[in-house]
Design brief:
heterodimer; A: 38% helix; 4% strand; B: alpha/beta; 14% strand
C-alpha cells in the first residue's frame, strides 16, 4: 500500500502537479495494481539474465556527421514555442 | 455499391482499368466520414483539401500509365504518427494544437506510393488503453453497437475500417493496440515484428515493444500495406537491416500450428473458443496440423508488461515539459512550477497513472524489485516462445477473452482494463509478429458482435503467418457491417 507521502514523492519526481483528490485516487489505484504485479515475485528468475534487447537487433549506426535538416521543417518545429532570435525561451530557473 | 466499401485489391482493379478514379474513391470516403463520424468519433482531424490534391495527383499518375499497389488508395492514420503540416495530437490535451513539422518515414513511403491521407484517427491518449475511452477528445464508438467500445488503443482506425470510412488504416501496437480493436470491430489487424517497420515519427510510448502495422478489410490488404511500409530506415536505429515482406501464398499444406494451453483457460468466452475450434477444423482440412504446446509463464505477461510499459512511458513522456511544444500552463512563477502545472493539467488520468507507476518502478530502492525483476521474467516469456517455435511454425490463440464491452464498463477500474491485454502482451514482449482475424459473430445482449483469433509467428516468418491467415480467410467468411 502506497502512503500519501509516497504518492507525493512520486508525483514530485515525475514533475506532475496533482490535486488532493488525485493523490487519493492514484494512491488507491496504484496500490491495487502493484498488489497484482507482486505475483512477479513468485517467478523463479535465478537462472536467467534480464532482457535488455529482443530479437537480436543490432544498432543501425550511421557516420557521426552533422547533416542539415530541411529548413522549412526546422522553422515549423521552432514555431511551436516562444522564441527569441531563434532561441527557445524558458521560464526563470531561480 | 458505394466505393468506400471496396478493399484495396478491389479498388486497385477498378482504378487500374479506369472504371473509377482516385478522386471518386476519395470523395466516397469523405462522404462516409461526413455521414457517420458524428456518431462514431473515429476521426479527429480531416485533411480534405490535401486529400483531394493527392487524389488529383494519383489520377494524373494513373492516366500516365503509372501503377503501384497503393496508388490512389485513401487511408486514415492513427493520430500518434507524425504527418507534416497536419495536427498530430496523440488524443492528448497536451498536444491539442500541435502540428507535426515533418512526416514519419512510413507516411513518406505511403506518399511516394501514391496513397491518399484522409485524416487522423482517435486513440487512447498516447496509446494508453484497450478501449479508446482514454482519449481527451471523447471515446470512439464501435460501429457494431454504438454503446460499446471499439477496443484500443487504435480504436479510431479499427472502427473507421469496419465502417468503411477509408480503404485501410494505420495503427500502432505496443501490447495489443492493433489486435484488440481489430478483434472488437471485426477487421484484420497485423502487428509487425519488432524492428520490421520504421518508427521514425511514431510518438514513443514503450520503445522496447512499440510497432506500427495496418488495419485492413482483408488479409491480402494487410500484406500489401506491410510490403510498402516495412524495411530498414537509417532514421530508426532499431530497424532490421535488409528487405522485409510477405508473399500472398494460400497453400498451408504441412504447416504446424501450436495451441498454447494457457491461452484457452480461465475467462475465455465459450463462443470464442468455439470460433477457434472452427478455425482448427477448417485449417486442418486445408492441410495444417495442430498440437498442444505450453507457454508456462503466460500468467506473468500482464504484470511484466505493466511494469515495463509504465517505466518506459514515464521516461518517454518526460519530454512533454511545455517548453518547445505542446500545452503551456499559465500562472507559473518559476520553471519547476511551470513543468508541474503544464504536465499536471496537460496529461489525462491514464497517462498520469502510467507516469506515476513507472516513476515508482524506476525509483531508488524499487528498481531491482520491479523493473529488473520484470525484465528477467520477460526472458522466461521469450524462452517459452522460442521453445514452442522449435515444434511449431505458428501459434493460434484468442485475441481477446470476450467481445467488445460496454462504454464505461471498465473505465473506473484500471486493473480490469489492463487484464484485457491477457492474450496480446506475450507476442509484444517477445517482439514477435501476430495477426488478429475475425472468426465470426456472437450474440451478446441483443447485439451481434465480432469475435476473433490470433496467429503468432517468429520475427522473420511473415510468409508462414500470411499463408495461414489467407487460408483462414478463404475458409471462414468475414462478416461485414453496412454502417450508414
Amino acid at each position: 500500500m502506497l502512503t500519501n507521502e509516497q504518492i507525493k514523492h512520486i508525483a514530485d519526481l515525475a514533475h506532475l502537479e496533482l490535486t488532493p483528490a488525485e493523490e487519493v485516487k492514484y494512491g488507491e489505484q496504484l496500490s491495487a495494481i502493484l498488489n497484482y504485479i507482486d505475483k512477479l515475485s513468485e517467478a523463479d528468475t535465478a537462472k536467467v539474465s534480464i532482457t535488455s534487447q529482443i530479437g537480436g537487433l543490432v544498432n543501425a549506426w550511421r557516420e557521426d556527421e552533422v547533416r542539415p535538416w530541411d529548413r522549412e521543417e526546422v522553422e515549423a518545429a521552432l514555431a511551436q514555442s516562444d522564441t527569441d532570435e531563434g532561441r527557445v525561451k524558458v521560464k526563470r530557473v531561480l | 455499391m458505394e466505393l468506400n466499401r471496396l478493399n484495396i485489391q478491389e479498388a486497385r482493379a477498378k482504378l487500374d482499368s479506369g472504371e473509377i478514379t482516385a478522386q471518386e474513391l476519395t470523395e466516397a470516403c469523405l462522404e462516409q466520414i461526413a455521414a457517420t463520424n458524428d456518431r462514431l468519433n473515429a476521426v479527429l482531424t480531416l485533411c480534405t483539401e490535401r486529400a483531394r490534391a493527392e487524389a488529383l495527383e494519383a489520377d494524373r499518375r494513373l492516366k500516365a500509365g503509372d501503377r503501384g499497389p497503393l496508388l490512389g488508395i485513401p487511408y486514415l492514420c492513427k493520430d500518434n504518427i507524425m504527418t507534416k503540416g497536419i495536427r498530430t495530437t496523440a488524443a492528448s490535451k497536451i498536444l491539442e494544437n500541435y502540428v507535426a513539422p515533418y512526416d514519419a518515414t512510413i507516411i513518406k513511403k505511403l506518399k511516394t506510393a501514391g496513397a491518399i491521407l484522409l485524416g487522423k484517427t482517435n486513440l487512447d491518449e498516447f496509446a494508453h488503453g484497450a478501449s479508446t475511452e482514454n482519449s481527451a477528445f471523447g471515446p470512439t464508438k464501435n460501429p457494431w453497437d454504438l454503446d460499446r467500445v471499439p477496443g484500443g488503443s487504435s480504436g479510431g482506425s479499427a472502427a473507421a475500417v469496419a465502417a468503411d470510412l477509408c480503404i485501410f488504416a494505420l495503427g500502432s501496437d505496443t501490447g495489443g493496440s492493433i489486435r484488440c480493436p481489430a478483434a472488437f470491430c471485426g477487421v484484420v489487424g497485423y502487428k509487425s515484428a519488432y524492428g520490421a517497420v520504421s518508427r521514425f515519427g511514431l510518438l514513443s510510448m514503450t520503445s522496447s515493444t512499440d510497432v506500427i502495422g495496418p488495419i485492413t478489410k482483408t488479409v491480402a490488404d494487410a500484406a500489401i500495406v506491410y510490403n510498402i511500409i516495412a524495411g530498414s530506415d537509417e532514421l530508426d536505429a532499431t530497424t532490421y537491416q535488409g528487405e522485409r515482406g510477405a508473399e500472398l501464398n494460400h497453400d498451408i499444406a504441412g504447416l504446424r500450428i501450436g495451441l498454447p494451453a494457457e491461452y484457452y483457460t480461465g475467462g475465455l468466452d465459450p463462443e470464442i473458443k468455439a470460433g477457434l475450434d472452427n478455425v482448427i477444423a477448417k485449417l486442418t482440412e486445408a492441410g495444417a496440423t495442430f498440437g498442444e504446446v505450453s507457454l508456462t509463464h503466460t500468467d506473468y505477461g500482464i504484470p511484466v508488461y505493466y511494469i515495463l510499459t509504465p517505466s518506459e512511458v514515464s521516461s518517454n513522456l518526460a519530454r512533454f515539459d511545455g517548453i518547445a511544444w505542446g500545452f503551456k500552463a499559465k500562472e507559473a512563477k518559476d520553471l519547476q512550477e511551470f513543468y508541474r502545472k503544464s504536465r499536471g493539467q496537460g496529461f489525462g488520468p491514464e497517462a498520469k497513472r502510467r507516469i506515476m507507476l513507472g516513476t515508482f518502478a524506476l525509483s531508488a530502492g524499487y528498481f531491482d524489485a520491479y523493473y529488473k525483476k520484470a525484465q528477467a521474467v520477460r526472458t522466461l516469456i521469450c524462452q517459452d516462445f522460442d521453445n514452442a517455435f522449435k515444434d511449431f511454425d505458428l501459434l493460434l490463440t484468442p485475441t481477446a477473452p470476450h467481445p467488445a464491452f460496454k462504454i464505461g464498463e471498465k473505465s473506473n477500474d484500471p486493473l480490469a482494463m489492463y487484464l484485457e491485454d491477457i492474450y496480446v502482451t506475450g507476442a509484444s514482449l517477445a517482439g514477435l509478429q501476430a495477426i488478429s482475424l475475425p472468426t465470426g459473430l456472437m450474440d451478446k445482449d441483443g447485439s451481434k458482435l465480432p469475435i476473433a483469433g490470433q496467429l503468432i509467428a517468429p520475427i522473420r516468418a511473415e510468409n508462414n503467418l500470411f499463408r495461414a491467415a489467407l487460408a483462414w480467410e478463404d475458409k471462414i467468411k468475414m462478416n461485414k457491417i453496412n454502417f450508414i
